[in-house]
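Sample entry (196 residues):
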Amino acid sequence: MALKKKIVSRPRPTVAAAQSSLPASVTDSVAVSAAASSSRRCYHLLHPASVFFWGTQAMTVKTLNQKNRINVVRHFWECNGIKSAIDAVVKLPDYSVQVDVISVLLEKVDLFTLDIFSCLLPLLLGLLNSKADRHVTVSLELLFELVKRFGQIIQSTISASSSVGVDLQAEQRLERCKQCYTYLLKIKQILSLLIR
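Predicted structure, serialized as tokens:
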């Protein structure tokens, strides 16, 4: 006859029960050693308030990274001009830095050229795809200002007949306008989805 073992399930001990069974000096020393080690799990088990500590630490790291990225953009702006700064922002994967820079650019719309507008459109397109309302709002504000300023130029350049002869500046302007027009059509599609 085969013996069958009966499995008895025991209730799992809770953190509160474990803490109450230990003397206060042991709990404090374990908490100090857990804080000193990199083991978040042990520290979290002994001190539920550690969630706040780790959340604060993560936020501090994120803020410092954002500050460093903004300083890089500022360095590009000071050394190489606004176009170089915009190129650097476009390459950054951080939407919050992009929005911060765009907020500053909103006050400097008078410095923009068609070339800068064509560099900004991919950035604005990316921000319109963001889930954050602030990203979309700031992007739309700058887009409105830029279209108000350059919309007529883009439309008239694209609709104009080609000139006779070679005019490199006119060809470059036409290429930029076509590029802007293509991005504006993509943005129009995104806006129709946002409105729904």
